[in-house]
Amino acid sequence: MRGYLLDTDTWIEYFHRRCGVEAKINALPANEIFASEVTIAELTYGALHSKAIERHLKETQMIEDAFTVLPISDALRDYAEIRHATASQGLGVADFDILIGATARHYGLTVVTHNTKHFGRMPGVQIVDWIEVSK
Q1: CA gap 25, 36 in Å, rounded
Q2: Which of 5, 13, 14, 74 has minimal CB crowding within 10 Å?
Q3: Per-residue pLDDT tens digits for 66-107
Q4: How far, in Å, are 77, 119, 133 from residue 39 at the CA level?
Q5: What is the residue extent of each domain of the chain?
């Protein structure tokens, strides 16, 4: 499979139309942009804890309607291998990040994230940062 699995932070920047993310997503065909079930869960949780619940739930639904959401169940072996590798080295990486990275690794996708520190610790996970931060 070819394409990009967007981390939760990247989707948030997309919806806020910040940091150049919207232009990068819009420049690619929809069939090259993916989300993880974990990201849908994180965005839904965030929506329910926001002051604009309905707006944020609609944004999450838009991802589900416009892009492919990949299941984590197919990547559970990858998750176990990545978690074992990072834990064996004493590296702290959140389980949700590992699940997103494992999904990308399983499907041969590149993770798009600004959290390069954590995703960069995952063996076999390709990453790229599309968030343009002004200095």
Answers
A1: 16
A2: 74
A3: 999 999 999 999 999 999 999 999 988 899 999 999 999 999
A4: 19, 14, 22
A5: 4-128
Element (H, E) at 108: none
Count helices and strands in the chain by DSSP H and E runs: 7, 5
Q: Which tokens in the block code for residue 4?
A: 């990009």
The 8-class DSSP code of residue 71 comes to P
Give the SS3 label for residue 91. coil
CB of 101 closer than 8 Å to CB of 125: yes
The CB density around residue 123, as the number of other CB atoms within 10 Å, is 13
Neighbours of 59 (CB within 10 A): 18
Any idea how long the chain is? 135
pTM for the model stands at 0.93
Q: Report whether 102 contacts 123 (CB < 8 A).
A: no
Q: Classify domain 4-128 at the CATH superfamily level.
A: 5'-nuclease (3.40.50.1010)
